[in-house]
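Input record (Table S2, row 453):
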Amino acid sequence: MLVMKFGGTSVGSADAIRNLGKIVKKQLDKKPIVVASAVSKVTDLLIETSKLAAGDDYSQNLKKLKEKHQEIIKSLNLNIPEVNTLLAELEHQLNMIKNSRQLTAETLDLIQSCGERISVCIVAAHLQSIGINSKPYNAYDIGMITNSNFGEAEITLAAPVEINKKITSILKANAKKELHSAHVPVITGFIGKDKNGKITTLGRGGSDYSAAIIGAAINADEIQIWTDVSGVYSADPRIVKNARKIEKISFAECSELAYFGAKVLHPKTILPAMNKNIPVKVLNTFEPENSGTIILSEMKKSDEIVKALTCKKNITLININSTRMLFAYGFLARVFYVFDKYNISVDMISTSEVSMSLTIDKDMNLDKAVEELNQIATTNIVRNKAIVCVVGVGLKNETGIAGKIFSLMGQHKINVEMISQGASEINISFVVENDEAEKAVKLLHREFVEEYQ
Ligand code: ADP
Ligand code: ASP
Ligand code: MG
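Output record (aspartic acid complex):
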């Protein structure tokens, strides 16, 4: 079995959906399960419209949302009444926000879910129109159960078992009915439901994660992430013109890249696949013959030292100095307790016995955490920084690489504020000013990827 996830641009136009159809048709013998994102830019537009609805006139935005979908449906020659029902539901929800002048995290998730719920109807109708037995499914109806952390929900322990049960029974029931062709379920990415039946979302870019959860739950042979680039590159091709496609990369390396900003994969995607040892392929919907990138568990030493570079902008740097009321061990424990208590996830840490620097990418609850930290330490918060991350299994055995990286930064007057090398030794990360991050990535790419043959 195969899970094929198609991102926003891959369902973003009638032509893209036609490509999708051809790609699925070619692999029908592998029993594909399709996971789809919302049409490209729709999630942004839904968020913007919800915020507008709480105060202003949102009718132009709503019109845009309707037209975007209707245009695709028309070009594909389809007639999908379910989409009109969903658009009417969206309008109703926006009206409720307008009347109450209030937008809660819960309502925002409900509204965002319309993007994926509509796109799966379009994709399944198109597959059906080209002779593939297909049906749209909302992920929450096939077991995607999450906690109630709206906007960034996490799946529950029970979810994979439930997903396996539901998908198996869908495929069985349809195999009896449809003898001549595989039944292809098209499932919404990005969304789930909590135990109270409220719709949740898994965080921006979360459809990759949905695909990985589904793939792991059904023990798929492969998880394919179909997107608008031909694989994982040595740097974001939008930043570095000469970025190269990586043929093979390990789960560990790819995980570092994803956590430190490479948007091509949602950071949580790797773990479910890694646990079940399911290969993940990143492929291009607009160039399907390209072999893409394969992500595997092996960490074979390769010739190159640096495999890829990435940066993550707009992070917050927090410096914490103990007021020496606690011993070293008490201090570190207390700091982590506070971050845990306020659900703040830490990206990078560098620490001594009595001081600590760390970075976070979401400021939510930070004020409360700092208030509590100030009882044991002095804290200093610096916003608008960026993390630059250098990744490669080869870093492990290369002496003097850190020296080379930082002298290159020094030569180009890029100020480095905090440095960290993870225990796995496959990455070196450091903090720079936001507006120096891309320059740093370009310089490092030229030095360690382009000139390293
Ligand atoms: P989708 O909508 O298909 O999920 P995304 O926009 O989320 O697509 O991710 C694909 C984008 O990720 C690419 O267009 C590219 O600009 C960006 N990207 C960032 N870093 C990398 C990288 N190292 N390799 C490939 N793409 C990257
Ligand atoms: N549609 C969602 C987003 O734009 C999820 C995804 O595309 O993966 O964030
Ligand atoms: Mg994405």
